[in-house]
Amino acid sequence: MQKKLDAITDMNIDFAQWYTDVVKKSEMVDYAPIKGCVIYRPYGFKVWELIQKELDNMFKKVDIENVYMPLFIPQHMLQKEKDHIEGFAPEVALVTSGGDENLEEPLCVRPTSEVLFCHHFSNIIQSYRDLPIKYNQWCSVVRWEKTTRPFLRTTEFLWQEGHTAHETEIEADGVAKQMLDIYTTLFKDVLAIPVVRGRKSEKEKFAGAVTTYTIESIMKDGKALQSATSHNLGNGFGKTFDITFTDKNNNLNYVYQSSWGASTRMIGAVIMVHGDNNGLVLPPKIAPIQVVIVPINQNKDGVLETATNIENSLENFRTKIDVRDKTPGFKFSDWEMKGVPIRIEIGPKDIAENKCVLVTRYSGEKQTVSLENIAKTIEQKLEEINISMYNNAKKSLNEKTHIATTMDEFENILNNDPGFIKAMWCESKVCEEKIKEKTAASTRCLPEEQEKLSDTCIFCGDTAKVMAVFAKSY
Amino acid sequence: MQKKLDAITDMNIDFAQWYTDVVKKSEMVDYAPIKGCVIYRPYGFKVWELIQKELDNMFKKVDIENVYMPLFIPQHMLQKEKDHIEGFAPEVALVTSGGDENLEEPLCVRPTSEVLFCHHFSNIIQSYRDLPIKYNQWCSVVRWEKTTRPFLRTTEFLWQEGHTAHETEIEADGVAKQMLDIYTTLFKDVLAIPVVRGRKSEKEKFAGAVTTYTIESIMKDGKALQSATSHNLGNGFGKTFDITFTDKNNNLNYVYQSSWGASTRMIGAVIMVHGDNNGLVLPPKIAPIQVVIVPINQNKDGVLETATNIENSLENFRTKIDVRDKTPGFKFSDWEMKGVPIRIEIGPKDIAENKCVLVTRYSGEKQTVSLENIAKTIEQKLEEINISMYNNAKKSLNEKTHIATTMDEFENILNNDPGFIKAMWCESKVCEEKIKEKTAASTRCLPEEQEKLSDTCIFCGDTAKVMAVFAKSY
Predict the structure, then answer these.
(1) What average pLDDT is seen over chain A?
(2) Residue among A39, A46, A107 minimizing CB distance to B120
(3) Percent of chain A at pLDDT above 90?
(4) Cβ contacts of B96 on chain A, cutoff 8 Å
(5) CA A99 to chain centre
């Protein structure tokens, strides 16, 4: 055991270093020779592919179609929408030469693709019959960042961005909310992560949006992570990019739009919600390997044969048998670091009894189970793990959710047991900014589930308009 | 019929315009507001996703793992490998500012990712135990092109690039050849396209490769299309990027590498090999819609009900029922333009007889078939279509493959019945360049299946070393 604990930093001593150790030692990523960029190694990229597959299936069930827009946006187009460019200009990378010639107009490497979708929509939409349009694309985007961390904030990152166009704002807003539901389901059922749902404050909303909906999760260090967002864009982009349609009464109207996105940040959330001092802990649905079989005394007669038989009977799961010339202890640590949900240990004694040892990664629980119907046992266990991991994370979220009615309480919580803080707020930007200045905590969202904790704003004492959730965040 | 033929240019009159009409009218792509870039619309992107899925499965069967490398390459790294940069420098797009600040060193938008893989390999390879490494990535790359055409040549294009590292050159070369086999199988079984396999001449090979293997296909206008390539990179990149490993005898060696790629060009090949004057003709495995059901007299009792029953019984296929308020004739043309392999027509008369009309897109053949076991009928028909489309394309390739033993013959062929020309060659670059200057035809490959057509080079009359296949190309 000692050996393992030496291998990575203790999360209670230095959470940031623990995170860095885990992403490197689990072989999810490697640093790239470009500032702020990472290499997604096979293990990390497979996790992304599994998330993609689940989310893409959810999109397809609600008739969202995949498309692909260019990597580049002409600079003048990005500047068209005033709020949008104010939000993104400071982060844009510019291509100024191509094929040894200087470009007449620089091209922005897309930080997000609203303006390209708008341009395309204006070409293909004429009538209400062409609506709604519901598109998504999987791609990478680039935002120049000063400080970067794998998965959480990188100069280039992988994501999906959805873009829709509608006849009415109600419809656009409905889709924005529907997508928040889909993200919430993904987080619960696939990532085993509970979230707080709500809308962003005016200050925190997406550049150009009417309303930004968000799901926020809480990490083991008590910091919040904005996990996915969905925007009701109103008809502002429609007006700027002249996206019109003739309605049923033959009147010309601007379309209403939504956009929504989730990124490789989700992997960061998985690591920081479920991980422990032995490394990654992956929920079964996104684990590249769901079951690892470690033979004990693998050179003894029949051991490898039985291990292979087990592997064959588990063909419906992502199963790996580890036959490396290493000690079982080394293998245990290695697969714990990689967060494999179930380990099966099988040795001569187990074989004699037609049994094997089943170790659950998230809990460390060891059971001896029969080799009869092992596939059924594993199937049930994987389902159970997903639910238990979610319940544990939910318990942790509840424990890390506090109420403050005075700034003293607010600061005490942040100093002693950081997490989400529910507090009443007057909704003024001034109070929001002053709280952030004083405590480094920002409004994460104005949650759907409102409570009345007091009558007055926690900061200024004026009449409160809303309960906000505050936290320090990634 | 007349209406359809008016809709797109006749391919025999203007093949290039026919191509442009087809990609636009089938709604595969739209032009983007960035020179040389296109928007992949849902129908075009779905074709790409289906090709991706097939090829990715083939890769996974031979233990290739997906990874993701950054979009950017520091300029000095791309300049490290002399041949490589000579090949790519003229096409590179440069990022010179990020986040409102000028960069100290410009970043190249990847034209291909050899150097990033090399950098990563040098970090993760120590011993022969770490080898082989077999990676692939799906991404977009950027090459500044003067003249562009959707799918065939665009500034940004989508592709996969595989990169492997090995102990020996034999092994690296073996994988390069294995990947050519996989591409050949993909073209035959999935795209229904026959190819000529061979290696590239010294002049035409990949910048930095020892040997480039290629598959070449022939379009309906007699021009060749380089369809996928695979490179034995030797240990040149290994030496340049210092990728070493300790072998079994504890000696330090450089790794040998391969790389291989196929792109959205494949969709261009599908269009130009199978398309006709009514539009696209898609092979079943990559058709977003495999079967379209067009109800006749859809307002008559029972028609839509029966059509829906047929749709339900075809749930194992990508099936669509077209209930738009349009005439059947309009719908027929529309789905012909989109290349849907099978159309089912179902009207009151058919229903009375428990039959439907089945129309095969590629041949135009009309059959009346029983509604009993319609799923089985469709399954067999789709298989048959794939084989027949391949056989037709193979016949066409054979007819377009000529032999020339004199330059007069060579030029006659190009003027009267262009296609592949087999001719003997001395392998000198001078002859190759002069032939290209004179005829615009280049060496497509030195085919695996060699024949001895004569003793002397078709151009200079010196002793011939090899039979080459020449053609004008895209």
Answers:
(1) 96
(2) A39
(3) 94
(4) 94-97
(5) 37
Structural contact between residues A5 and A277, judged by C-beta atoms closer than 8 angstroms: yes
Using alpha carbons only, what angle is made at residue B197 by residues B194 and B201, rounded to the nearest 5 degrees? 140
Give CA–CA dist A156/A151, Å, rounded: 10
Q: Do B93 and A98 touch (CB under 8 A)?
A: yes
The full length of chain A comes to 474
- Paired tokens of B331: 């719908």
Q: Closest Cα partner for B17 from B439, B25, B269?
A: B25
User: Which CA distances in Å does B111 have to A109, A256, B31, B163, B240?
Assistant: 15, 37, 21, 15, 19
Nearest to B98 among A68, A69, A93 (CB): A93
What count of CB pairs under 8 Å joins A to B?
154
- Which of A37, A94, A135 is the closest to B70 by Cβ? A37
Interface predicted TM-score (ipTM): 0.95
CA B135, chain centre distance (Å): 20
Contact list in B for residue A45 (CB cut-off 8 A) is 65-68
Which of B72, B146, B155 is most worth mutating to test chain A (most A CB atoms within 10 A of its CB)? B72
- Judge contact between B335 and B292, C-beta under 8 A: yes
Distances (CA, A) of B85 to A41, B70, B88, B90, B141: 26, 18, 5, 9, 15
Minimum distance, in Å, between the CA of residue A15 and any CA atom of chain B: 26
**pLDDT confidence band for B472 (50 / 70 / 90):** very high
Q: Is the pLDDT of residue A3 over 80?
A: no
Do A273 and A216 touch, CB atoms closer than 8 A? no
φ/ψ region of B115 (left if φ > 0, alpha if ψ in -120 to 50, else beta) reads alpha
Best of B25, B37, B68 to mutate (most A CBs within 10 Å, chain A): B68
Tokens of A390: 């979610």
Could you say which DSSP state residue A89 is in? G
CA dihedral A121, A123, A127, A131 (to 10 degrees): -20
* pTM, two decimal places: 0.96
Q: Which of B25, B27, B28, B39 to mutate to test the interface with A (most CBs of A within 10 A)?
A: B39
